[in-house]
Amino acid sequence: MVSALYQISKNTFRESLREPIFLILLLSTLSLIGFFPTFALFVFREQVKLVVDSAMATALLFGWITAVLCASHAIAREINTGTALLLLAKPVKRPVFILAKILGILGALTVFWFLTAVATLMSVRVAKDQFRIEYYSFACFFLALALSCGYGGLRNYLKRVPFPMEAILGMVVILPLTAFATYWIPAGEKGALLPYSWEIVPALILIWYAILAMGTLATALSTRLDWVANLVVCSVVFVVGLMSDYLIGRHADGNPVLTFLYAIIPNWQLFWMADALAAKKVIPWEYVLLGGVYISLFVGAFLLLAVAMFHNREVGKQSLT
Known about the structure:
The chain is mainly alpha-helical and about 325 residues long. The protein has one domain. The protein contains 13 helices and no strands. The chain has helices at about 1-20, 20-35, 45-80, 85-90, 95-125, 135-160, 165-180, 200-220, 225-240, 245, 255-265, 275-280, 285-310.
């Protein structure tokens, strides 16, 4: 069982990275985050807040869309085409199959989040000076993206391996190395070194939690819905979760139905720390740990939901239980 779990999750991870839409969404997200410092001149002493808010919102939104598309590719398409039948015809239990798919998708989403987190740190550093953009770091960031795509193209030409996956794996190595190298480029007043804003790391980790939860929910829904319906349902959960305090929470006292709804709907606002960062507050690691426990409960619940929804799902032309 462990071997099947590992192999299916590894293949799902690789298939997710091989999808061209994954690379397109990732490059779009990184490019937007990289360009946010150019808008710093349009605000007064709020350039860091602008970049942090915009980068976190972009990572969360595009991460959610990527989660839905990855889940639809890994689950819904394989079910509709009968590809999943080949695995289920072997001694692979349905819970193992769906768990492995979820682990593979969450691994791909973690790669997506990691690259956006590194890009956010670099982008905030570029925008620290209100009246001067650090163009060397700015250029190095986009050069790293170009080198990663060049590496993927070269590997595709020489080894016939998928270009999207090789380009993404190239970014995993090249982008952090670029962030380390650009730190030593003098950028501040009198040529001083500008440090990275490590205080935003806890906020970025909380964004990662939200992306993982949405990825698990999207995978569960993909066992029954196509990608359009999945996107619609996830959109509703996302919007309602963002406003759950206003829509449900303030009316939940004394109402068991609303209390239950408030408990089962993920409160995404708990993972949005942009306001705390704007107020120069330190996000304690204890809060990050509690956020991990909170989101683990939802991931576990969505996993059970996925197993239940997939239990009697017709796969291809047959129904295997």
